[in-house]
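Hypothesis: this fold can be encoded by more than one sequence.
Test: take the structure tokens below, design a sequence, compare later.
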């Protein structure tokens, strides 16, 4: 089937609730073959960024923080929301500095993915910050409690295999880095 034969026809889209970091939407659409109408829920969210920061020694900068969704502490990479009108690269640089105090002179785009296209309309922009070095102190927002550490790239991949790193969007960034090869894109 062609894309057009798979595409539901949107009849209406209306805001439902505003949750600060995303807004839910009611979406009414008709089936591409039968024309039967059905209601769906969508989430509108800003684009996100995440950063694999690699030091001159080849280590990657990792963070640990509590996540309310799973009620657990997770090992991740720095990242966050792209502010309205902000370029994703600028957001990535800002998030790295804010969450870790690290900065890097060389930035490479690893890729862009749809975090959950079944219900979300945003994109995740993934970057490699090569030659990252500690340049200051983290500047957390009031909702962040984060600790920073470094590990070899091999150890980061082992953490993924063991399930110590299980945030899907973090795993996606490391997958993009692995596809790019050891030197990066």
């Amino acid at each position: 089937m062609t894309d057009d034969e798979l595409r539901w026809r949107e009849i209406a889209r209306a805001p439902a609730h505003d949750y600060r970091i995303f807004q839910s939407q009611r979406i009414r659409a008709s089936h591409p073959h039968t024309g039967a109408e059905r209601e769906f829920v969508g989430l509108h969210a800003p684009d996100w960024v995440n950063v694999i920061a690699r030091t001159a020694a080849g280590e990657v900068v990792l963070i640990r923080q509590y996540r309310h969704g799973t009620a657990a502490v997770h090992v991740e990479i720095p990242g966050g929301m792209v502010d309205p009108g902000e370029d994703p690269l600028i957001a990535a640089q800002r998030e790295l500095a804010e969450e870790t105090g690290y900065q890097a002179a060389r930035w490479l785009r690893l890729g862009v993915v749809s975090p959950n296209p079944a219900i979300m309309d945003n994109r995740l922009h993934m970057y490699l910050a090569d030659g990252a070095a500690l340049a200051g102190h983290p500047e957390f927002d009031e909702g962040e409690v984060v600790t920073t550490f470094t590990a070899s790239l091999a150890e980061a991949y082992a953490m993924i295999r063991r399930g110590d790193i299980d945030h899907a969007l973090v795993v996606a960034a490391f997958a993009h880095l692995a596809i790019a090869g050891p030197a990066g894109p």
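The first strand starts at residue 9 and ends at 18. The domain at 48-180 is CATH 3.90.79.10 (Nucleoside Triphosphate Pyrophosphohydrolase).
Hypothesis status: open.
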